[in-house]
């Protein structure tokens, strides 16, 4: 099964059909939830990454900041996933030939893998990570998440 | 000269036309506007939540305000400058959408609220930061900021949906 066949099948299912037949402001509301989720995730990653770089909230420890922002990250990811599906499903086949769409999800896969591996290890360990590891992780996390946001904005222009 | 006429002049200007017709420049400016939002509205959201007692409750407000201020202001510089470019590119279409003046009004009120907070409270945090309960006026400033910036983001995101041919 090619991705186009899969996406066409997704688009043809009753739920996608139902979403697709709503008023166009329904899509706008999905976009509002999408941007809210994105701000929650980006700002949380930003605060923690700045701290790993030795910038921003330097009077707090990294684990403290991760703990204080983790609920924002998970609420944000939940909002992004649900609203993202609402945006994607009714036009799934239409996204298949879009290279920026695929780039966005490759970056997202990398960001999520980083989040549960190196990022988690660096930000939750009791002893301070080596500065080069901390800074590299922060740089990677910021690049990937900002890249995802940028790619998301670009999808509609291709 | 009315606002609509000014908007038409901006729309027809070289920079407006170039931005609108460019394959790369327009989405790059839009992407930067979005990234700027994570620094400006995103960081102010964290401070508002702290003032409301919902984030880093045990950390003094001054310890958030002072180190975040340059990042937040830098974020606003990026958000506002890219916002002006986006407006210039689509001015004639954007000026007639009712949510646009609402967005500008909410930005103005949020700015006044932030200045009031900055000069009345943020410059003398030592007088209230240690108190077990945050003064009501400070909590109110935080909630007002949260609500107003929420309106700004909502109006901004709705512009392409309510603007017909955008």
Q: Number of helical runs of chain A?
A: 8
Radius of gyration of CA atoms of chain A, rounded to a whole number: 18 Å
The count of strands of chain B amounts to 0
* Major sheet description of chain B: none
Unreliable residue runs of chain B? none
Structural class of chain B: mainly alpha
Give the tally of β-strands of chain A: 0
H and E order of chain A: HHHHHHHH
| Chain pair forming the biggest interface | A-B, 31 and 28 residues
Helix content of chain A: over 70%
Structural class of chain A: mainly alpha
State the order of secondary-structure elements of chain B, H for helix, E for strand.
HHHHHH
How much of the residues of chain B is beta strand, in percent?
under 5%
What percent of residues of chain A are in strands? under 5%
Could you describe the largest sheet of chain A, including whether it forms a barrel? none
* Rough outline of chain A: elongated
Number of helices of chain B: 6
Uncertain parts of chain A: none
Share of residues in helices of chain B: over 70%
List the helices and strands and how they pair.
The complex is a heterodimer of chains A (158) and B (166).
Chain A: H1 3-12, H2 14-20, H3 24-52, H4 62-88, H5 92-95, H6 99-116, H7 118-124, H8 131-155
Helix pairs in contact in A: 3-4, 3-8, 6-7, 6-8, 7-8
Chain B: H1 3-12, H2 14-21, H3 25-51, H4 61-94, H5 99-120, H6 136-162
Helix pairs in contact in B: 1-4, 2-4, 3-4, 3-6, 5-6
Structure description:
The complex is a heterodimer of chains A (158) and B (166). In chain A, 80% of the residues lie in helices and 0% in strands. Chain A is built from 8 helices and no strands. In chain A, helix 3 (24-52) runs antiparallel to helix 4 (62-88). Chain A starts with a helix and ends with a helix. Chain B has 166 residues and is mainly α. Chain B has one domain (3-162). Chain B is elongated and about 55 Å long. The mean pLDDT of chain B is 91. Classes of the chains: A mainly alpha (158), B mainly alpha (166).
């Amino acid at each position: 099964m090619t991705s186009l066949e899969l996406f066409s099948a997704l688009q043809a299912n009753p739920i996608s059909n139902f979403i697709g037949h709503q008023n166009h402001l329904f899509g706008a509301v999905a976009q509002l939830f999408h941007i809210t989720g994105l701000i929650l995730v980006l700002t949380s990653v930003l605060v923690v990454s700045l701290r790993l770089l030795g910038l921003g909230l330097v009077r707090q420890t990294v684990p403290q900041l991760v703990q204080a922002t983790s609920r924002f990250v998970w609420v944000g990811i939940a909002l992004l996933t649900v609203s993202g599906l609402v945006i994607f499903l009714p036009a799934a086949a239409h996204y298949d030939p879009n290279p920026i769409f695929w780039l966005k999800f490759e970056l997202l896969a990398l960001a999520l893998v980083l989040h549960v591996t190196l990022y988690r290890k660096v930000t939750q360990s009791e002893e301070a990570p080596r500065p080069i590891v901390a800074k590299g992780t922060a740089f990677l996390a910021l690049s990937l998440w900002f890249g995802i946001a940028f790619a998301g904005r670009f999808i509609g222009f291709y | 000269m009315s606002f609509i006429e000014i908007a038409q002049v901006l729309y027809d200007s070289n920079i407006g036309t170039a931005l609108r017709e460019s394959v790369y420049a327009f989405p790059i400016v839009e992407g930067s506007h979005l990234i700027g939002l994570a620094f400006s509205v995103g960081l102010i959201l964290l401070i508002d939540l702290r003032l409301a007692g919902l984030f880093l409750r045990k950390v003094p407000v001054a310890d958030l305000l002072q180190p975040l201020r340059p990042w937040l202001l830098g974020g606003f510089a990026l958000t506002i400058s890219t916002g002006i470019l986006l407006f210039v590119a689509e001015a004639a279409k954007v000026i007639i959408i009712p949510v646009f003046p609402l967005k500008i009004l909410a930005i103005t009120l949020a700015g006044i609220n932030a200045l009031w907070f900055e000069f009345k409270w943020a410059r003398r945090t030592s007088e209230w930061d240690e108190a077990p309960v945050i003064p009501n006026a400070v909590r109110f400033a935080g909630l007002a900021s949260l609500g107003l910036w929420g309106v700004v983001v909502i109006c901004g995101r709705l512009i392409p949906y309510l603007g017909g041919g955008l």
